[in-house]
Amino acid sequence: MEQPKPAFDEMLRPDGGARSAYSDYAAWFEGQQLAALRKKAEEADAVFRRTGITFNVYGANEAEERLIPFDIVPRIVGAKEWSRLSRGIEQRVRAINAFLHDIYHRQEIIRAGRVPEELIAKNSAFLPAMIGFTPPGRVYTHIVGIDLVRTGDDEFYVLEDNARTPSGVSYMLENRETMMNMFPELFSAIRVREVGSYPKNLRRSLEACLPQGCDGRPVVAVLTPGIFNSAYFEHAFLADQMGAELVEGHDLRIIDGRVAMRTTQGFKPIDVLYRRVDDDFLDPLAFRPESQLGVPGIMDLYRAGKITIANAPGTGIADDKAIYSYMPEIVEFYTGEKPLLANVPTWRCAEPDALKYVLANLKELVVKEVHGSGGYGMLVGPAASKAELEAFAKKLKARPGNYIAQPTLALSTVPVLTKAGLAPRHVDLRPFVLVSPNGIEITPGGLTRVALKKGSLVVNSSQGGGTKDSWVLED
Amino acid sequence: MLGRTAGGIFWMFRYLERCENMARLLEAGHRMALTRNTGSDEEWRSVVTTAGLQSGYEGRYDDYAAAHVVNFLLRDKTNPTSVLAMLETARHNARMTRTALTREVWEATNIFWMRMKEALARPVRETDLPGLIAMIRQQSAQVRGALHGSMLRIDVYNFARLGTFLERADSTARILDVKYYAAAVLVLCRLFARQCAVGDNPALGLCRACVPMAQCRGHAARWCGGVPDPRRTLPALTRFLLPEVARQSLLSGERLWPPHAVARSG
């Protein structure tokens, strides 16, 4: 696929010299042998396999576990860029939490006419069960992943907010661990901000959101859908690192008005549940009745203040793709400031003029389903065949309200190591944000996803993307 | 610890033990098949019977050819207790209880599975069999070593040992149950020879297990040196070994088992 204009290369200037954030790394790289680096890359693969850092692919025949390809060239962000970015992220996350509180209480933003009412009322991510209820510590999104893309020296866009159960943080941690094992000399020469305290911070942050009646140290557990879930490794990893129990729905039961887990010493009550199960499956009595993954009756206890659920149910209304286009208004409405991070310009296909434009320019646009996730149900115009475009246009006309469209951004590139040496590939960045009553904490860096195919813009691991270690340099 | 975790750990170690026993059974069968002048089919039939897989096997094959038996026991997809299938189940349980295991134990189990999956990707030829069996023994020892060396002596550990010993008791009972005495004796000797080896080093703190086993080695040496008379030795062996194995299982291993009690019972 041809790019309309050359993408921004984060490592190299057009004249071939290294940009300042990469200068130390580039100097080190000069002294390396390609063959030796290739060997290191193979070693890294073996380490990931042995450790079992794999993900399951939905719909694959033998439920095969796959490895997310790891590239050994780090993605480096300078200290100044990062501090600008993190201010923008913090502002956005603050606004998201204020929006959620408002939307489940007085709905001022709708009264003010900034967000249309039908967008909320008709949205399946809006949970009536949350109306009038305030979660412990007034925190809705305990963990947020903000997907950022870069298009120029100082141009960052938010591509997506992940306010439900963002995943990928285990890769951020394991990637760093692997890099420190393979290239210790790099870390003694270059001062990179650490990410390893994330699990400890996560635990502290969750504990700070303890339910009211809880005295003593809260019992934290991670709720997983189980071993066949695509992110199971991460659930086990985080539970292990936090020193929390990893529970499944059928380990839990309501005993004496508390959610309790069945242990070899009897039932033990849980105070804070970090759930990695979608809202729909959380409580068969409140949501999908056939769900086996959740706990019958947990929503009643939640609303009675007996347990904290992280993230709170109903946060999906804040990261829905239909809401996304209103984020600049939302940020301004709740913070009283101009948004520090830009949104990607977005056409809401529900609006007739926008739909007309989108249909006419389908070949240049990326079209996304509003409730879809992870690159499924998405059309990348420039990469699509004529037949695919026609089929998608039909879907668009049938249910325009189901889609939004965005221009194809020239995502920045970072080099990856190939057989022939370094070659640029498109990347995005997902920093992880923790929210507690004590404040907002952003882990410096995050998960860099990289499209390994030349020219490809799809970075999702389910579609052939890989990851990189992401460095934020010390001041 | 969660009840589910306890169950997962127990089954993980039962399956790992069964894998190893299966390998030892194959080893014994192979050795006997090689040392017989007449056809070896009878030897292989006894192996399948001892493994308790006769009906499944006969649903698939009409004969007891070495290649069929070996592949059936090691890697056949229709056999849920093939070594490969059992390893998959053991690893599945390990993944499920990942947070209760140390990284060492998990990795040893995962590597065991990875190696065997690779080694058993294609049909096994007779030349490969000794190497494969050695590999299974060695990888089992790695998991056991990781368990001993890295796990706290808490409930998780006890459930792991309980799974191991119950499975060992079960397979010992099976072997004794099979009428083919010679096979039973040989397999038993091999099964327990490894414990003698461990017991030789009292510094490991495992000397409690070695007292009866050292005697077993004495017996083994006597039987293997001469021509064993199954009718005479087997009842003795049964009297001697079965109560010990059962006791190991019930008391969940060394921890509750003072050495003097063992010495007396010998």
Would you mind describing this structure in some detail?
The complex is a heterodimer of chains A (475) and B (266). By secondary structure, chain A is an alpha+beta fold. Chain A has 16 helices and 23 strands. Chain A is 32% helix and 24% strand. In chain A, strands 3-23-22-19-18 form a five-stranded mixed β-sheet. In chain A, helix 3 crosses helix 14 (327-335). Chain A is globular and about 65 Å long. Chain A starts with 22 loop residues before the first helix and ends with a strand. Chain B is mainly alpha-helical and 266 residues long. Chain B folds into two domains: 1-163, no CATH class; 179-266. Chain B has helices at 3-35, 41-50, 54-58, 66-74, 83-96, 103-119, 129-150, 155-177, 181-199, 207-225, 230-250, 259-265. In chain B, helix 1 runs antiparallel to helix 5 (83-96), helix 1 runs parallel beside helix 8 (155-177) and helix 9 packs across helix 10. The A-B interface holds A 49-52, 226-227, 232, 236, 239-240, 245-248, 250-251, 261-265 and B 1-4, 6, 92, 95-96, 98-99, 103, 106-107, 110-111, 114, 155.
